[in-house]
Amino acid sequence: MKPIFLYLSIFWLATISACSSNLYRSTNRSYKKQVKNYAKLLREYPVKDSSGLLFADIWVGTTNFTMRRPNFVVIHHTAQDSCGQTLRTFTLPRTAVSAHYVICRDGTVHHMLNDLLRAHHAGVSKWGNATDLNSMSIGIEIDNNGSEPFTEAQMNSLLQLLDRLKRAYNIPQANFIGHADVAPGRKVDPSRFFSWHLLADKGFGFWFDTTNVDVPIDFNALQALRIVGYNINKPDIAIQSYKIHFVPHDTTNVINDTDKKILFDLMRKYQ
Ligand SMILES: [Zn+2]
Questions:
Q1: How far is the CA of 142 from the centre of ligand 1 (A)?
Q2: What is the per-residue burial (b if ≥16 Cβ within 10 Å, else e) of 189-221?
Q3: Distance 123 CA to ligand 1 centre (A)
Q4: Is residue 220 part of a domain?
Q5: How many CB atoms lie within 10 A of CB 250?
Q6: Count of Cβ atoms closer than 10 Å to residue 144 Cβ
Q7: Is 141 a catalytic residue?
Q8: What residue numbers bound the domain in which 183 lies?
Q9: pLDDT digits (tens), the chain, 271 positions
Q10: Residues 112 and 157 in one domain
Q11: Distance 98 CA to ligand 1 centre (A)
């Protein structure tokens, strides 16, 4: 290569890398500013209160505490066409949505928010008695348009990430769930292409075994769905979310004999 072309190439590469590092400079500044404000909030004790509650004259702070920890992981697909598009969505204030992690098609992981802060990923949601999943969970978005398989690189990164989170926060095996599970009817992610079976094999969520199951005659499948965690206020959409997760090839909303076996077995694992 002639020296002039070499210099031009170096200049071009330097320009490209400078642009990509500058792209999020102002939103990163916004992140740091918000974290600084929350840090300030943590230092504000005793809290000034005008509710009329009979607070003691002297303040005594305990010496024994840690940060609150996430206890659930909620998995999503982005329903967008690229990681770049999702990073942009999560850095535009007007969208008001975010996640702790985004996993790109090549397996690259973007850690967009400290695990101890609350991301806006689950929205109106319910799982068991938990009604504010955003406050108690880590949100993971997988770059996928919703009608395509997830890549091997993505699944490998996801499994590594789940392993880290499970260890770091001691998250129970039952508490690895999908957006569709906690928001039936409103959400369908991650799609039927997502392998919850693979995740359960690695210790994230449970899977069923229908071979040695004798379902009692008075078995109530809907109550079993409730015990697993589903909000059964609207049975049809609860069944739809259950099928997306556990019987992805079945697009009906009908509970058949196999479903009864599946649910009887799952119920025992989730309760
Ligand atoms: Zn989602």
A1: 9
A2: bbbbebebeebbeeebbbebeeeeeebeeeeeb
A3: 9
A4: yes
A5: 16
A6: 24
A7: yes
A8: 68-207
A9: 455 544 545 445 444 454 556 889 999 999 999 999 999 988 887 777 778 888 888 889 899 999 999 999 999 999 999 999 999 999 999 999 999 999 999 999 999 999 999 999 999 999 999 999 999 999 999 999 999 999 999 999 999 999 999 999 999 999 999 999 999 999 999 999 999 999 999 999 999 999 889 999 999 999 999 999 999 999 999 999 999 999 999 999 999 999 999 999 999 999 8
A10: yes
A11: 10
The DSSP 8-state label assigned to residue 249 in this structure reads T
Question: Do residues 74 and 202 share a domain?
Answer: yes
Strand partners, 103: 109, 142
Cβ-contact 175, 186 below 8 angstroms: no
Provide the terminal-to-terminal Cα distance of the chain, rounded to the nearest Å: 68
CATH of the domain at 167: 3.40.80.10
For ligand 1, the distance from its centroid to the CA atom of residue 112, given in whole angstroms, is 16
> How remote is the CA of residue 76 from the centroid of ligand 1, in Å?
4
Which one is catalytic: 44, 141, 148, 152? 141
